Amino acid sequence: MPVRRLPSNPNLDHLKYQAKDLLKERTSHTPGVAQRIREFHPRFRRATDAEIFDAQISLSDAQLTIAREYGFPSWARLKRHIEKPTLSDRLDLPHQQRIENATFRRAVELVDTGDVAGLRVHLNQHPSLVHQHAVFEGGNYFRDPTLLEFVAENPVRHGTLPANIVEVTKVILDAGPSQSAQNETLMLVSTGSVPRECRMQLPLIDLLCDYGADPNSAVQATALHAEIEAVNALIARGARIDLPVAAALGRVEDARRLVAGASSEDRHLALTLGRILVMSRSFDCCLTRVKIQTDTTRWEAIPTRHRCTKLPGAAMMK
After folding, report:
1. For the chain, first and last CA: distance in Å?
2. Which residues of 200-231 are buried (b: 16+ CB within 10 A; e: fewer)?
3. Looking at CB atoms within 10 Å, which of 31, 88, 164, 211 has the fewest?
């Protein structure tokens, strides 16, 4: 499930009561409470309902769960957001306006306007900028992006991309961003609606892969978002076809072949896709085998922290 959004004037005492209520709901085995804890408390990510109900869970555990439900990595960070807010805490502003570092903010402006020459000069003047991170808390994803990740327009900030976004992206790639930044950007591009609508998704996928982004890092999330053209592009660049990907593409024989060796998580992802996507009767029969082998008390939500433009998904922390 996506993270919850804090109200415009959050009250810390109210959030403390939510944590206490969470403990009470767990004690009374309220439906859905185990899934909330499993999804947002890292210690219980792979626990069954029974394991969660039997575990010793403290008030601090409940507060951590509540904090992460609202998109914060800890209760302390949530508390600071409320008591000592900064510009980056302004959830009512677009991401680019929440950037506190003026040099970083200027670089994003150059990306958004497609100023290739200006961006190249700016990065030459500030070579470490390509490795810096902006900090955005309280959201579903995009919590600590590098400059490269802004080229994906995911989350949507303007609703469009400059016509020369491929050239803009190449300037940043030439500056030497990290492998993780390249992989994350590939994920954002492949799952984003704006790159697709601007006909830039496939060219950006090819460019990022040319520079070393790993297509396997993006293929499952892309399948979960039903970005089928992007999935095929990632496969063409070397991404493996696993069970969830086979489900997204409706590859019945591949799915049958992959079921036996698939993890419980992959089986659940495939089953979820089978329920959502339009598939043939033969593929539904294949997914029946997946369902039988899936522990529904352990994988009730799609375990991906990535954005969701089409399908409902969970929002796991990094």
Report:
1. 15
2. bbbbbbebbbebebbbbbbbbbbbbbbbeebb
3. 31
Residues contacting 217, CB < 8 A, separation 6+: 183, 186, 187
Structure tokens at 153: 């327009």
DSSP structure string for the chain: -PPPPPPSS--HHHHHHHHHHHHHHHHTT-TTHHHHHHHH-GGGTT--HHHHHHS---HHHHHHHHHHHTT-SSHHHHHHHHHS--GGG-TTS-GGGG---HHHHHHHHHHHHT-HHHHHHHHHH-GGGGG------SSSS-SS--GGGGGG--S-SSSS--TTHHHHHHHHHHT---HHHHHHHHHHHHH-HHHHHTT-HHHHHHHHHHTT--THHHHHHHHHTT-HHHHHHHHHTT----HHHHHHHT-HHHHHHHHTT--HHHHHHHHHHHHHS---HHHHHHHHHHHHT--TTT--S----S--SSS-------
* Local confidence band at 297 (pLDDT 50, 70, 90 cut-offs): low
95-240 architecture in CATH?
Alpha Horseshoe (1.25)
Radius of gyration of the chain (CA): 21
Spatial CA neighbour of 306 closest among 276, 271, 269, 260: 269
CA angle 77, 70, 304 (to 5 degrees): 110
Report residue 161 as tokens: 């991309």
Give the count of beta carbons closer than 10 Å to the beta carbon of residue 275.
12
Residue 114, phi-psi category: left (phi > 0), alpha (psi -120 to 50), beta (remainder): left
CB 150 within 8 A of CB 171: no
How confident is the model over 1-31, as pLDDT tens digits?
557 888 878 899 999 999 999 999 999 998 8
Residue 230 identity: A
**Could you give the CA distance from residue 174 to residue 184 in angstroms, rounded to a whole number?**
17
Quote the pTM value.
0.75
